[in-house]
Amino acid sequence: MHNGALQTLDDVITFYDNVGKGRFQNTNVSNNQLDPKLRGLDDHQGDAIIAFLTSLDDVSFDKIIPASVPSGLHPGGN
Q: CA 66, CA 69: separation in Å to the nearest integer?
Protein backbone atom coordinates (compact mmCIF):
# COMPACT_ATOMS: atom_id res chain seq x y z
CA MET A 1 0.00 0.00 0.00
CA HIS A 2 1.33 3.47 0.81
CA ASN A 3 4.58 2.11 2.24
CA GLY A 4 4.99 -0.68 -0.33
CA ALA A 5 4.24 -3.46 2.16
CA LEU A 6 1.49 -4.85 -0.07
CA GLN A 7 2.76 -5.63 -3.54
CA THR A 8 -0.37 -6.53 -5.53
CA LEU A 9 -4.03 -5.58 -5.79
CA ASP A 10 -4.87 -9.05 -4.51
CA ASP A 11 -2.77 -8.34 -1.39
CA VAL A 12 -4.64 -5.06 -0.83
CA ILE A 13 -8.06 -6.70 -1.30
CA THR A 14 -7.08 -9.49 1.11
CA PHE A 15 -5.88 -6.91 3.66
CA TYR A 16 -9.15 -4.96 3.58
CA ASP A 17 -11.18 -8.17 3.57
CA ASN A 18 -9.36 -9.28 6.73
CA VAL A 19 -9.91 -5.89 8.38
CA GLY A 20 -13.61 -6.04 7.47
CA LYS A 21 -13.85 -9.47 9.07
CA GLY A 22 -12.14 -8.28 12.26
CA ARG A 23 -8.75 -9.82 11.46
CA PHE A 24 -6.27 -6.98 11.37
CA GLN A 25 -2.76 -6.71 12.70
CA ASN A 26 -2.55 -3.19 14.10
CA THR A 27 -3.02 -3.46 17.86
CA ASN A 28 -3.09 0.36 18.10
CA VAL A 29 -6.42 0.54 16.25
CA SER A 30 -9.58 -0.58 18.01
CA ASN A 31 -12.77 -1.78 16.31
CA ASN A 32 -14.60 1.44 17.20
CA GLN A 33 -12.01 3.42 15.21
CA LEU A 34 -12.85 1.56 12.00
CA ASP A 35 -15.48 2.75 9.54
CA PRO A 36 -18.67 0.85 10.39
CA LYS A 37 -19.30 0.35 6.66
CA LEU A 38 -16.10 -1.69 6.37
CA ARG A 39 -16.99 -5.35 6.05
CA GLY A 40 -15.62 -8.54 4.59
CA LEU A 41 -16.16 -9.56 0.99
CA ASP A 42 -17.94 -12.56 -0.42
CA ASP A 43 -16.11 -14.99 -2.71
CA HIS A 44 -16.56 -12.99 -5.92
CA GLN A 45 -16.43 -9.38 -4.77
CA GLY A 46 -12.64 -9.25 -4.47
CA ASP A 47 -12.22 -10.65 -7.97
CA ALA A 48 -14.76 -8.14 -9.32
CA ILE A 49 -12.93 -5.21 -7.68
CA ILE A 50 -9.60 -6.36 -9.10
CA ALA A 51 -11.13 -6.83 -12.56
CA PHE A 52 -12.59 -3.32 -12.44
CA LEU A 53 -9.36 -1.69 -11.26
CA THR A 54 -7.22 -3.48 -13.83
CA SER A 55 -9.65 -2.41 -16.57
CA LEU A 56 -8.68 1.20 -15.80
CA ASP A 57 -5.08 0.57 -16.89
CA ASP A 58 -4.70 1.19 -20.61
CA VAL A 59 -1.15 0.37 -21.65
CA SER A 60 -1.95 1.44 -25.23
CA PHE A 61 -2.76 5.03 -24.12
CA ASP A 62 -0.65 7.51 -26.10
CA LYS A 63 1.32 9.51 -23.49
CA ILE A 64 3.14 11.72 -26.02
CA ILE A 65 2.65 15.42 -25.31
CA PRO A 66 1.81 17.18 -28.60
CA ALA A 67 3.71 20.26 -29.74
CA SER A 68 0.45 22.20 -30.00
CA VAL A 69 -3.26 21.82 -29.37
CA PRO A 70 -6.28 23.41 -31.13
CA SER A 71 -7.04 25.69 -28.15
CA GLY A 72 -3.64 27.37 -28.48
CA LEU A 73 -2.86 26.62 -24.83
CA HIS A 74 0.59 25.31 -23.95
CA PRO A 75 0.44 21.48 -23.79
CA GLY A 76 1.70 19.93 -20.58
CA GLY A 77 0.85 22.89 -18.34
CA ASN A 78 2.34 26.30 -17.66
A: 7
Predicted TM-score (pTM) of the model is 0.62
**Residues with pLDDT less than 70, the chain:** 1, 78
Predicted local distance difference test score (pLDDT) of residue 36: 82
Evaluate whether 13 touches 44 at the Cβ level (below 8 Å): no
Q: What is the DSSP string of 15-77?
A: HHHHHHTT----TTS-GGGS-TT-----TTHHHHHHHHHHHT--TT---PPPS--TT-PPTT-
